[in-house]
Design brief:
With 184 residues, the protein is mainly α. It has helices spanning 4-30, 34-60, 76-80, 86-109, 115-146, 148-172, 174-177. Helix 4 (86-109) packs across helix 6 and helix 5 (115-146) runs antiparallel to helix 6 (148-172).
Length: 184
């Protein structure tokens, strides 16, 4: 029902959701702020559920997921270094969630997107909106501690790095993503 290329893309999404879930689960164990820990717990639970949605979607399309190594967000630490505090982790998360929302929106706007893929993206998008909202709120609350200018500079640095990573990813997987990308 789908091409091999589409199977790879859906598997890539699934791998990124698994990677995000595992990252946030490990992080949630170490966070002492109960409000942030609660939201991180909800976040990693959503990410795990999104991976399940992609697994179910692939199964309904009679396609097996492809085991892929690295996820999109795995490139962040190479590009910007390891975050040194929670604000930086949340800043990377905010940038990534924005990228995810825009990418999924572009995919779902394709006229040739399979209805099951559109349905899966639709289920995920509500959660992604909440992810962006809670992270943005948490970062804003950290401005008195880190300084508004420092927070803005950190976000700008991560946005620039994300743009480079996105362009590199599109170039690296050009044959996979060329026909998929429709800017939101």
């Amino acid at each position: 029902m789908i091409t091999e290329n589409e199977r790879w893309i859906l598997s890539y999404y699934r791998t990124s959701e698994i990677s995000g879930s595992m990252f946030f689960a490990r992080l949630a164990k170490s966070i002492r702020n109960p409000d942030i820990q609660r939201d991180l717990t909800g976040h990693f639970a959503d990410e795990a559920q999104h991976a399940r949605y992609w697994s179910d979607c692939l199964q309904q399309l009679d396609a097996k997921p492809i085991r892929l190594g690295d996820a999109y967000q795995d490139q962040y630490f190479d590009a910007v270094g390891v975050p040194v505090n929670l604000m930086e982790v949340l800043a990377i998360t905010q940038v990534f969630e924005s990228r995810t929302i825009n990418h999924y929106a572009g995919h779902s706007k394709r006229v040739d997107a399979h209805p099951l893929v559109r349905e899966t993206i639709g289920k995920i998008m509500d959660d992604e909106g909440w992810h962006l909202k809670w992270v943005t709120t948490a970062i804003k609350a950290m401005e008195p501690e880190y300084g508004q200018d420092h927070v803005r500079a950190t976000l700008a640095r991560y946005k620039a790095a994300d743009q480079e990573i996105y362009e590199k990813t599109l170039k690296e997987y050009d044959e996979r993503f060329r026909e998929l990308i429709v800017e939101a």
